[in-house]
Amino acid sequence: PPSCFGCFSGNEWVCSDCSPSLRPRPVFLREAGESVVTCIAYDERTARIVLAAKEIGNSHARHILSSALASALKELIRGRDPNTPIGIVCIPSSRRSKSRRGRDSLAGLARDALRLLELDSQAGRIPELQLLDILRWRRQERDQSRLNEHERNENLRDSLEVVTMPADQIP
Asked: What is this structure's pTM?
């Protein structure tokens, strides 16, 4: 039987005490002049679900996170012209992490979230969303699995670069 990702109690993937902290609540932030949408506050409980999804590929954890990401994407694109495609950019997993896990975890979650939104997109209710692979690591970062939010930000500062895309691939 499952136990709660957040507190390890009970027999549910997310118990009633932890569900409020894991419920998707898109929040708009401003970072370096760009709009950034977060979907779940990062705390001890959410760190556990992220690790379950990324490190062991737990399908229930992946579904919870991809649903939260889909919710955040819907919030981001609400009110935008449905005829204008939007590019989604993920921070790529490091080569070391991809090799260890056998996948790029965040890109996989993003693809899952886009599949959840695909029917709305086909019905013309939301713009076409495209996952763009345009970030590359400039240097190797520290393992972030045990870092808090501030330490993660410092660890990632100036570590990525944008790779130019051919014009016909830009949405």
From this structure: 0.73
